[in-house]
């Protein structure tokens, strides 16, 4: 099988050099169904779940005592929906030579089934899930078990390869790269296993991407091995409740799991072997308890760009906030000022029911070279919050990064987006590390028309919304229908992720033409239009209110 596939890979590479690979190759999103009786009693529910969660690959455990007819309807309907069905089978004892015949029975069954099935009813592959490290004598007789496991795998792939249409795959844990092959100590067991199959699912059972014990670090060696061997890799995560919380998303919930796996493609862009994700398994995924609803408090916010105003007109700002029902302030920080400069203002604002978020940003903060500036802001705020009382702490950190004003945006927008994504991921990770700070950003509402690098089917604004606690959409228009039109699709998307959105409008004089700012219409008309916006958007749980840009212009705007 591997020899034939290597020949095919060379051919594909040749074609690729001539015509180019498609950057939009669709990745797999898979799950396992271990209880085959489910496809009989809840077929439609499973298919609906697959559709709503974009699943295009199902590993279905086969009970060989059932008639072929039992599987045909489910597989046929799945195929029509663009879902491949692969058989999955395995047991720790299947690693032993004495159980080779039992292992081979699944191959013979699938081939026999496929011969009698219509094309759209056929099983597309077979996956082995053999976990011999669960055997009681793994620790005492590991080398023998590994040798027999290798022999059984080779017998399996040789038999599968006789049918060129079948995909041979395996589920393997991430830590096999620490185990050498007996007699070939220079080769890891993971590399050997990866080399035998068309596809491997690496069981990267952790509940975070980053860090020493995160998914990215733990699978790094396997991804490099798979790149070298030209084997496709699906990265698998777990929704099954486990005693070790860090090995499953069961406790963290669906929203966090979705956030983490949606970030994977960008991190895996340098690995041609990366072919998608797999979630273990359908039952636990389906039954995962939804996150408890958050009590909704609609925002009315504004921006304070000049840090010196905190000292020179604190009372005026707080009075303006009270008169205009402001309960959210984005305050730009001057990090050269001492922490004592902000304490009274933050405390008095919080006593007045106003959330204060520390703000920073610049267009060049989208570039990797400026990641240190973001970290400096985050670390300053964390140090400040640790040094003051709870009543004087910032509620969150807000970034205003608008790289589309840079010349490099026009020269290489995709590269700027990639670097921006990396900086945002680093910002969120650092903000959340050992802190309860909320992470948010300003985002141009029109970025929903820009594709995400590495995920061309995903609008960039959607990618950004997934990363943050809340996103402030800059919908700079001066009529309610135009504002609603800019943000409504993003409201729907954010609602599906239980994310919060704030809609921002402009009061500063604009030189981009009429229709951008409320500078000409005045603040009374702005309030009337924003009332219409709220009435239209309030049906979305993702709509968390409005912000007016900015305090200086708003307070001096004409009535």
Write up this protein.
It is a single chain. By secondary structure, this protein is α/β, with parallel strands linked by helices. It folds into 2 domains: 28-288, Glycosidases (TIM Barrel); 299-555, Glycosidases (TIM Barrel, Alpha-Beta Barrel), CATH 3.20.20. It has 21 helices and 20 strands. The strands form 4 sheets. Strands 1-2-3-4-5-8-9-10 form an 8-stranded parallel β-barrel, surrounded by 6 helices. An 8-stranded parallel beta barrel has the order 11-12-13-14-15-18-19-20, surrounded by 6 helices.
Distance between the termini: 76 Å
The pLDDT mean sits at 92
Strand line-up of the largest beta sheet: 1-2-3-4-5-8-9-10
User: What share of residues are in beta strands?
Assistant: 15-25%
How many E strands?
20
At the fold tier of CATH, the topology name of the largest domain is TIM Barrel
Report the CATH C-level class of the largest domain: Alpha Beta
Radius of gyration (CA) equals 28 Å
Note the overall shape: elongated
Sheet with the most strands, sense and barrel status: 8 strands, parallel, barrel
CATH H level, superfamily name of the largest domain: Glycosidases
The SS-based structural class is alpha/beta
Share of helical residues: 40-55%
């Amino acid at each position: 099988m591997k020899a034939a596939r290597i020949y095919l890979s060379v051919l594909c590479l040749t074609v690729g050099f001539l015509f180019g690979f498609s950057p939009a190759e669709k990745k797999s999103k898979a799950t396992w169904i271990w209880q085959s009786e489910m496809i009989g009693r809840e077929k439609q529910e499973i298919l609906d779940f697959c559709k709503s969660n974009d699943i295009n690959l199902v590993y279905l455990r086969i009970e060989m005592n059932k008639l072929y007819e039992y599987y045909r309807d489910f597989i046929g309907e799945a195929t029509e929906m663009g879902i491949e069905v692969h058989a999955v089978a395995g047991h720790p004892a299947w690693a032993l030579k004495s159980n080779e015949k039992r292992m081979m029975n699944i191959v013979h069954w699938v081939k026999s089934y496929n011969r009698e099935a219509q094309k759209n009813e056929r099983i597309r592959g077979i996956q082995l899930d053999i976990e011999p490290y669960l055997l009681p004598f793994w620790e005492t007789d590991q080398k023998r078990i590994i040798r027999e496991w290798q022999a059984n795998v080779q017998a399996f792939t040789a038999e599968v390869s006789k049918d060129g249409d079948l995909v041979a795959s395996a589920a393997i844990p991430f830590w096999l790269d620490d185990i050498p092959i007996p007699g070939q100590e220079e080769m890891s067991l993971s590399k050997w296993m990866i080399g035998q199959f068309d596809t491997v699912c690496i069981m990267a059972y952790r509940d975070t991407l980053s860090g020493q014990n995160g998914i990215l670090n733990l699978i790094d060696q396997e991804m490099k091995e798979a790149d070298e061997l030209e084997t496709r890799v699906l990265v698998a995560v777990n929704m099954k409740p486990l005693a070790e919380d860090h090995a499953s998303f069961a406790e963290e919930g669906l929203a966090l799991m979705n956030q983490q796996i949606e970030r994977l493609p960008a991190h895996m862009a340098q690995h041609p072997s990366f072919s998608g994700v797999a979630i273990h398994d359908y039952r636990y995924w389906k039954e995962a308890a939804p996150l408890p609803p958050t009590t909704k408090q609609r925002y009315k916010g504004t921006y304070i760009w000049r840090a010196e105003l905190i000292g020179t007109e604190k009372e005026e700002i707080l009075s303006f906030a009270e008169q205009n029902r402001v309960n959210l302030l984005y305050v730009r920080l001057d990090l050269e000022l001492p922490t004592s400069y902000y304490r009274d203002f933050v405390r008095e604002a919080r006593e007045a029911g106003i959330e204060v978020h520390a703000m920073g940003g610049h267009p060049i903060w989208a570039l990797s070279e400026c990641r240190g500036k973001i970290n400096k802001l985050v670390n300053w705020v964390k140090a400040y919050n640790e040094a003051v009382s709870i009543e004087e702490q910032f509620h969150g950190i807000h970034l205003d990064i608008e790289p589309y004003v840079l010349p490099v945006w026009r020269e290489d927008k995709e590269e700027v987006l990639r670097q921006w994504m990396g900086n945002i991921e680093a910002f969120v990770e650092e903000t959340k590390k050992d802190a309860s700070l909320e992470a948010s950003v300003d985002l141009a509402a029109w970025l929903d028309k820009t594709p995400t690098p590495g995920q061309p089917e995903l609008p960039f604004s959607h990618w950004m919304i997934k990363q943050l606690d809340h996103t402030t959409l800059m919908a700079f228009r001066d009529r309610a229908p135009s504002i609603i039109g800019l943000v409504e699709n993003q409201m729907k998307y954010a609602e599906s992720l239980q994310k919060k959105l704030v809609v921002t409008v402009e009061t500063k004089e604009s030189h981009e033409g009429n229709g951008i700012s409320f500078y000409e219409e005045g603040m009374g008309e702005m309030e009337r239009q924003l009332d219409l916006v709220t009435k239209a958007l309030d049906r979305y749980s993702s709509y968390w209110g409005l912000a007016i840009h900015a305090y200086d212009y708003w307070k001096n705007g004409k009535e």
